[in-house]
Structure formats: structure tokens, C-alpha cells
TrEMBL record:
Classification via InterPro entries: ComGF
One Pfam entry name: ComGF
Chain spans, region Disordered: 152-175
Protein's UniProt keywords contain Membrane: yes
Species the sequence originates in: Lactobacillus corticis
Sorted UniProt keywords: Membrane, Transmembrane, Transmembrane helix
Protein name per Swiss-Prot or TrEMBL: Competence protein ComGF
Residue intervals passing through the bilayer: 20-41
Taxonomic classification: Bacteria, Bacillati, Bacillota, Bacilli, Lactobacillales
Ranges of biased composition (kind: Basic and acidic residues): 156-175
Domain of life: Bacteria
Amino acid sequence: MKQVSKLIKLKTNAFTLLEAVISLMITALVVNLLALILQTVQKADRLDHRRNEVAFAGQQFERFLKKQSDYTYTLPRFSTKSQAKFWRHYVDYRGVKMKQIFTLKWKNRSIVVSPGYMPLVTKVKKARFQTDDRFIRINLEETNGRQSQLIFKLDQAPKEEKEHDKKASTEKVQG
């Protein structure tokens, strides 16, 4: 009887030791898998971050153009390759109709909207603007070599604004 109880004790001790070794191996395997998953997520985040930043900037600017705006139209006569100008007619928070000129320009390796202080896109090596009656096109070359093009469709200028611009330009030529 004593021999049987000794064997049972040995079996339970060995079983406990075997359980501990297996649980340590499983724990090490789980920790290793979690570390590999974390590395994969970090690497994927770094690779897709720049592309998403440009797309996000485009969506934010589009939202800015449409937010509480009656209409927004370009000023191609006053725009250049280094900046794009546009009018924005909107109603402010007090209910007052406002009319304001905004400028998109490339400055200090970023594209900014002025008046304003937040950059639209950062880490830009080169930027070229094209403006016509209804579109603003921005060709970007980023610091990492990627090239992107952002196109924004705006409203057409009202007739009275076009006539006002023609009068102003003829007065400048005559005067």
C-alpha cells in the first residue's frame, strides 16, 4: 500500500511538472505571437500613413468648402502656379452674410489656407496649383517621393461677379 501511495505521489508530481512546462510553452508562444502582431500593425501603419494623410486633407478641405457656404468659386485671374485664390460666400454664426477671399499656397514645406493657421498638408517638397472657372487642381510631390493630385470642384461664379471682375480689369487697363 505504501508503494502504491508513493507511485501516486510521483505521478501527481510529474503531472504537475508536465503541466507547468506546457503552460510556460503556451505562454511563451502567445507572447511571441502578440509581439509579432504588434510589429506588423506598426509597420503597416507607417507604410499607409502618408497616403491617408493626403486623402484626409482633401476630405477636410472639401468639407471646409461646403460647410455653411452658399457658394464658393475660383478666381483664376488672380491665381498663379504657387497659389490658388477663391471666394467663399457664407453665413456666419450670427446669421450675417459674409464674403471672403481665401488663398491656398505652398509655404514652408506645407500647403496652407490663409487666412488661417492650420496646414492642409505637411511634408510637401513641391506643389503646383492650376485654377480654372470651376476647379482647383493641386499637384503635390511629397518629401518621400510620392506624387498626388488633389482636385476640388467649386461652384461657377455668379454673373454679377463676372461682370464686376470685367469692369475692374478694364478700369485698371484704362487708368
